[in-house]
Design brief:
The chain has helices spanning 9-16, 22-34, 36-54, 65-75, 94-100, 204-213, and strands spanning 110-113, 116-120, 128-134, 143-145, 149-155, 158-159, 164-165, 170-173, 182-183, 189-195, 199-201. It is α+β, with helices and mostly antiparallel strands. The chain has one domain (1-58, 94-215): Sandwich (Jelly Rolls), CATH 2.60.120.10. Strands 1-2-3-10-5-8 form a six-stranded antiparallel sheet, sandwiched between helices. The chain has a three-stranded antiparallel sheet with strand order 7-6-9, with no helix packed on it. A two-stranded antiparallel sheet has the order 4-11. The chain is elongated and about 70 Å long. One zinc ion is lined by residues 143, 145, 149, 173, 179.
């Protein structure tokens, strides 16, 4: 997998600091699980955060707390080291499987029009995460963005006015971007997308449907 579109420094930094809404954090974690380059960058930001914590004043502890700690370790039954079971092969990366399982066929997809289907995930406030299923050759209606939209490709590929996005690529779209993503011919495209504000659709039909499909 050759990944060409990566996460921004500000997203990685905010994720390392635990500042992102859950839906954005999920897209970041899913991309990082597929991308060595961003994993290294994220670890660097986490190390910076840890170093800053180290420089904070330490809290006073009871004199016997170290002894108590050793006593608890000694009392813990030893468990043989187990290798983690190999993850099943899935187009869904591990962080996403925690939400939806591993099988795209088991997802309760709901139609959003023009053959496109979605499944909204259960995440906390501040942003919404959804899986999008775009049949090969099909377009998502032309739209702009009121906030930030992160789209991670899991299967297939799409093109829009800015570039081509294949498996592992993440598109970061903001208010300045208006686009019509079109799934490439040959394979249906599955994406994980997160938005922190409703999209701005150019067409009247998608606008009318918007309240019902929560996009
Ligand atoms: Zn990356
Ligand atoms: Zn968009």
């Amino acid at each position: 997998m050759t990944i060409r579109h990566h996460l921004s420094d500000s997203l990685l930094m905010a994720h390392a600091a635990g500042q992102l809404p859950e839906a954005f954090g999920l897209v970041v974690a899913a991309h990082v699980s597929m991308c060595d380059e961003c994993r290294v960058r994220l670890e660097a930001y986490e190390a910076v955060g840890g170093a800053m914590l180290d420089r904070c004043d330490s809290a006073p502890m009871a004199d016997d707390s170290l002894d108590a700690c050793f006593a608890r370790i000694a009392g813990t039954p030893r468990t043989p080291r187990q290798r983690p079971a190999p993850a099943p092969r899935s187009v869904f990366p591990a962080p996403l499987r925690a939400y939806v399982g591993a099988d795209p066929g088991a997802i309760r997809w709901r139609p959003v029009g023009m053959g496109v289907r979605q499944a909204v995930l259960r995440t906390g406030k501040g942003a919404t995460a959804r899986l999008l299923y775009i049949p090969a050759g099909q377009a998502v209606p032309d739209h702009g963005h009121r906030g930030t939209e992160l789209t991670l490709v899991l299967q297939g590929a799409f093109r829009d006015e800015t570039d081509r996005f294949g498996p592992g690529d993440v598109e970061i779209a903001d208010q300045a971007v208006e686009h019509t993503p079109v799934a490439e011919a040959g394979a249906d495209c599955i994406c994980l997308a997160a938005t922190d504000a409703p999209l701005r659709f150019a067409g009247i039909l998608p606008r009318l449907a918007q309240p019902f499909i929560r996009i």
